[in-house]
Automatic annotation (TrEMBL), chains A, B:
Similarity section: Belongs to the beta sliding clamp family.
Record organism: Oceanobacillus piezotolerans
PANTHER family, A to Z: BETA SLIDING CLAMP (PTHR30478:SF0), DNA POLYMERASE III SUBUNIT BETA (PTHR30478)
Assigned keywords, A-Z: Cytoplasm, DNA replication, DNA-binding, DNA-directed DNA polymerase, Nucleotidyltransferase, Transferase
Cellular component annotations (GO), alphabetically ordered: cytoplasm; DNA polymerase III complex
A Gene Ontology BP annotation from the UniProt entry: DNA strand elongation involved in DNA replication
Location of the DNA polymerase III beta sliding clamp N-terminal domain: 1-127
Superkingdom field: Bacteria
The name this protein goes by in its record: Beta sliding clamp
UniProt key word Transferase: yes
SUPFAM superfamilies (alphabetical): DNA clamp
Subunit structure: Forms a ring-shaped head-to-tail homodimer around DNA.
SMART domains in the record: POL3Bc
Role played: Confers DNA tethering and processivity to DNA polymerases and other proteins. Acts as a clamp, forming a ring around DNA (a reaction catalyzed by the clamp-loading complex) which diffuses in an ATP-independent manner freely and bidirectionally along dsDNA. Initially characterized for its ability to contact the catalytic subunit of DNA polymerase III (Pol III), a complex, multichain enzyme responsible for most of the replicative synthesis in bacteria; Pol III exhibits 3'-5' exonuclease proofreading activity.
Length: 378, 378
């Protein structure tokens, strides 16, 4: 194997596949990066067996030459050293060469590294996924769906299924739902041009977080395919494979109250920064609880009290308050996470009493829903 | 106590005094920030009893009003909450008011925090230092002296005196020396307009690191005063007091070889980045050892070998090599630290054999000296 590659391209591909590599893997060869040179380009692969990422650098693209003098072959290099070496090489191009005894030479300018490689034959094959059974969507839309839901997954391993995001595609509607049983985040978008349907697909939250980091906004579309136990996200340069979680995701639709007793419409950012301030004193307490109290027709009061430290009070003038008066306490952290996911200037919060879950949606957009269980404080 | 203050000014003063505050202090009131309002301005104080920092905000300066409606008084507020509160307040100005029962109210826009303060009378008095026995120097010069020496202090408590920087002022020359017994860094500058002399003043490395972070390049001069057990650095807005280390600093001048057998003149950055690359494979080994070998009259080779991982070789064309041929091994970390402190384009390295300490100085500047003990590798 041999090739000369643009260093910047190599750095960014290495960074992408590193997202899948864990130093704590039980399969030793997975601590390495697999490099494969083929006639038309170079592939890098990283995997921790839950997530596998392949990044492809075409030899030539849009009349720019990325890779030259390719001699086909493959090798696995230690992920502990290779990324830093590539980052610190002196010149814009890097020559990588590997002989039959798995010795790898990396040259750039006057610097020459000789590394011990591992046989690429020993690297596990990524499962081949049927990609004819797939649908496409814009990358920026998928990223925003992930951002609006994944924070609500459970971090506790007591109910493993809740550490994933429930992904469903039915009636040309793609929905993502996450809940840790104290709050729930959901987002729906229409997907046209597909006949595919699937249900109870649960993708680990960690996989979606890593995917979100490496999906490149500069690319337009991502192709998604689902099998029994894997989900594949594919773009022109990226092949991102994640295992699915086993088990049945709980039915969440019945948690969402259909009626409300109090409705508040308020500027999202104003409420967010007020709750953020109120949470400063609450952070010692369990769940960082703050309290919301309606005051007449267009004023709410946010308070927090931490006996040893002090208390904080702030009024917000809101667009409208409809229905019953209300005093309710909730976790400021959950509220801040949810308001950040709203992404619209104004939010409508619908309450059904101080002891029932309440929901938040942007004004004029039903596709985003955030639900929070209140905290009993008396 | 009451005043209304520009929030930006308050934030930057709070950040400065926070550098002295430790949550692990044995004196409970030192976990707080002392706020003192006087007719002409506000002082904030933080201390961990080793370092004390006072930041002063004048009510009016250069025709800008920083503080208004001052009613004199003082209070101590928990450093755990106060900085975040100030940072997140909604408006450009902040009103701080304190009643006789030590209740503090912080108002900004519609936000109101009520905090429990502590009696400022219980806060330890900073020692008053005789400032007529002081000398002045430019701030940027002091900062560069600290940067060029402080990294070489020992981090081991086995010889506590070596965790400090030895500061001497004799014959109108200020010198800073630091050594951990494996390397030594020293810098001298002339100080005119003073008759003061002192010796064996040892300032904790930690104090100088914190001082370096908060000294403001926008101010011009710093005034330095030394007593038996304290050193004071004073600018218009800052009062930075550090205790000195007890004990005698070792005589270091005899460590510095006076003759050399091999002299190499080389571009500082080129050598630095080459050694940085060579150290990538060496990091597993003790001390990150790399080897330098002269090759004829104007080439040196930097190599590193880590049997399990591989090896690296890089040649550098140098300005000149005088004297004997040389093969020498040393810690790449020490070398990188020293070269960063050189601050000149070209460096002269003087060796007296593979087993003796070697020294580095910038070309045409004797005021900076870096010394490193080589590593025996055979």
């Amino acid at each position: 194997m041999k090739f000369i590659i643009q260093r910047d391209q190599l750095i960014s591909s290495v960074q992408d596949v590193m997202k899948a590599i864990s130093s704590r893997t039980v399969i030793p060869i997975l601590t390495g990066i697999k490099i494969e040179a083929k006639k038309h380009g170079i592939s890098l692969t990283g995997s921790d067996s839950d997530i596998s990422i392949e990044s492809y650098i075409p030899a030539e693209e849009d009349d720019v030459v990325n890779v030259e003098q390719i001699e086909e072959g493959s090798i696995v290099l230690q992920a502990k050293y290779f990324p830093d070496i590539v980052k610190k090489l002196p010149e814009k191009t890097v020559e990588i060469e590997c002989d039959e005894s798995l010795k790898v030479t990396i040259r750039s300018g006057k610097a020459e590294f000789n590394l011990n490689g591992q046989d690429a034959e020993e690297y596990p094959q990524l499962p081949k996924i049927q990609t004819d059974n797939s649908f496409e969507m814009p990358i920026d839309l998928l990223k925003s769906m992930i951002k609006q839901t994944v924070f609500a997954v459970s971090t506790m391993e007591t109910r493993p299924i809740l550490t994933g995001v429930n992904v469903n595609l039915t009636n040309n509607t793609l929905s993502l739902v996450a809940t840790d049983s104290h709050r729930l985040a959901s987002r729906e978008v229409p997907i046209s041009d597909t006949n595919i349907e699937f249900k109870n697909v649960v993708v680990p939250g960690k996989s979606l977080n890593e995917l979100n980091k490496i999906l490149d906004d500069a690319e337009e579309k991502v192709e998604i395919s689902v099998t029994n136990n894997q989900i594949l996200f594919r773009t022109k340069h990226l092949y991102f494979l994640s295992r699915l979680l086993d088990g049945n995701y709980p039915e969440t639709s019945r948690l969402i109250p259909e009626q409300s007793k109090t409705k508040i419409q308020v500027k999202t950012k104003e409420l967010l920064s007020t709750i953020d301030r109120a949470s400063l004193l609450a952070r010692e307490e369990r769940n960082n609880v703050v309290r919301l109290t309606t005051q007449g027709d267009n004023l709410i009061e946010i308070t927090s009290n931490s006996p040893e430290v002090g208390n904080v009070t702030e009024d917000i003038t809101v667009h409208s308050i409809e229905g019953e008066e209300l005093k309710i306490s909730f976790s400021s952290k959950y509220m801040i996470d949810a308001l950040k996911a709203i992404e619209y200037d104004e939010v409508i919060i619908s309450f059904t009493g101080a002891m029932r879950p309440f929901i938040m949606r942007p004004v004029d957009d039903d596709s985003i829903l955030q639900l929070i269980l209140p905290v009993r404080t008396y």
